[in-house]
Amino acid sequence: MSTRTPLAWKNLTSSWRKCLLAASGVGFAVVLMFMQIGFRGALIDNNVQILAPLDTSYANLAVISRSRYNLTTEQRFSRRLLEAVAGRCAGGRMMPLQLERGTARIHVAGRRPRPIRVMAVETDVPQMFRDPELRQRLARARQLGGALVDRRSKSMYGFASDVEELRTQYAELNGQQVPLIDFFSMGTDFSSDGTLLMTTDVYAQYFPWRNPGGEPNEVIDIGLIHLDAVDTDALQLAAAELQDLAPAQIQVMPTRDLIAREKAFWLRSTPIGKIFTVGVLLGLVVGAIICYQIQFTDITDHLPEFATLKAMGYPPAYFVRFVVAQSFYLACLGFVPGALISWGLYALLTETSGLIMAMTLVRATIVFTLTLGMCVVSGVFAMRKLFTTDPASLF
Q1: Cα→Cα distances 228→15, 86, 224, 225, 255, Å
Q2: Nearest partner of 95 among 130, 57, 62, judged by Cα
Q3: Residues 330/12, Cβ–Cβ less than 8 Å
Q4: CB 3.0–4.6 Å: which of 154, 209, 239, 373 could bond 193 by disulfide?
Q5: E strand or H helix that includes residue 226
Q6: Cβ–Cβ contacts within 10 Å for residue 37, how many?
């Protein structure tokens, strides 16, 4: 027998019907893992999407209330504290970010009123915006006393899909007419089905009760500051020093740390994060069972041939290499269609649900590694029958 003969490949493809069935089983497990990882990623990533319109590499320092344990918690702090922190920073440009979810209700003509998330920012610092065009749209919305609509908001709100039609829609925000000016793109999360974006002065008109006894914008949800820090250590040191200005009232941290903290909260401190993690493991177990059955059946069907090779003196290492090679081919045959189907499902769910599910290289690498691992491990377990069989008993 020539060592160049791709025995594993020929054995796997000797019956294309069986090969396709085997690949379909692996592909099912691949889709299951991709979807669970996709939902898990959407859970983590979409909950920090409120910062997506902003350039967090420029707005590199974040200030939040000491009581705010995640971004959806409505715990606010005084604007004067943000100004004090910004005043101590080299660079010192700041942007207050306002959020309202609990009391905001939008009523689009022809639909019933629904809760919606409302965000507000200032447009004084152009560098804070990831997209300069967004700042221009916000400036126009400010002139007209209106808002921008997240184009990924769920269809139940009734927002038009065309800009010109959107501008003619009649809508009320908390009982007051609100002009709908244009779109922006952000995405939904597990606590909000849609978002309006406006400037802080317009925002104050719709939420005058935010600060009883004072101006609505005198309290803020998140403060973003640009600090002229050239490296991570300098940024961390500056955040620690600024924290001492009001340690009982505010938390000061690099913006990337705020994002990481928010992701960790949803992943580790909520049951949803654990559910999707278990879902990934379930997909892995289901795939391993399918692969085991496929390879066990294949080895059983070809046991006389394997026994002949064993009787001819082929060592156990040869059969291990054979199973690993066949597992690799099986993993590839199942992964490619599974990844393509998952990519299509990601695009469909992103479009219909507002959740951002992206097919990234890291995600694909993780799933392929898991797929290859489950195929190899299940193949090794299936091969035990070959190792325990006496070749003489088969003839």
Answers
A1: 65, 11, 13, 10, 14
A2: 62
A3: yes
A4: 154
A5: strand 222-226
A6: 23
Give the residue extent of every domain in the chain: 7-46+271-394, 61-228
pLDDT digits (tens, 9 = 90+) for 104-133: 999 999 999 999 999 999 988 888 999 989
Run of H or E including 184: strand 180-184
The mean per-residue pLDDT over the stretch 354-383 comes to 88
Alpha-carbon Rg of the chain, whole angstroms? Answer: 29
Closest listed residue to residue 325, CA positions, set 12, 25, 8? 8
* Strands in 110-157 per DSSP E: 114-115, 117-121, 147-150
pLDDT of residue 288: 84
Which amino acid belongs to residue 83? E
Structure-block tokens of residue 161: 């899909």
Parallel, antiparallel, or unpaired for β 180-184 and 147-150?
parallel
**pLDDT by residue (tens digit) across 328-338?**
888 999 999 99
Q: Determine the Cα–Cα distance for residues 70 and 191; give it in Å rounded to an integer.
A: 12
Q: What is the model's pLDDT at position 230?
A: 65
Question: What DSSP assignment string belongs to 298-324?
Answer: HHHHTHHHHHHHHHTT--HHHHHHHHH
- Residue 272 near residue 47 (C-beta atoms within 8 A): no
What does each C-alpha distance from 159 to 6, 108, 164 come to in angstroms? 58, 7, 12
CB crowding 264-302: b at 16 or more within 10 Å, else e: ebbbeeeeebeebeebbeebbebbbebbbebbbebbeee
CA of 277: how far to CAs of 44, 347, 368, in Å?
12, 22, 17
Q: What global pTM score does this model have?
A: 0.79
pLDDT for residue 44 is more than 50: yes
Spell out the long-range contacts of 7-10 with Cβ–Cβ below 8 A and sequence spacing 24 or more. 7/322, 8/322, 8/323, 8/325, 8/326, 8/329, 9/325, 9/326, 9/329
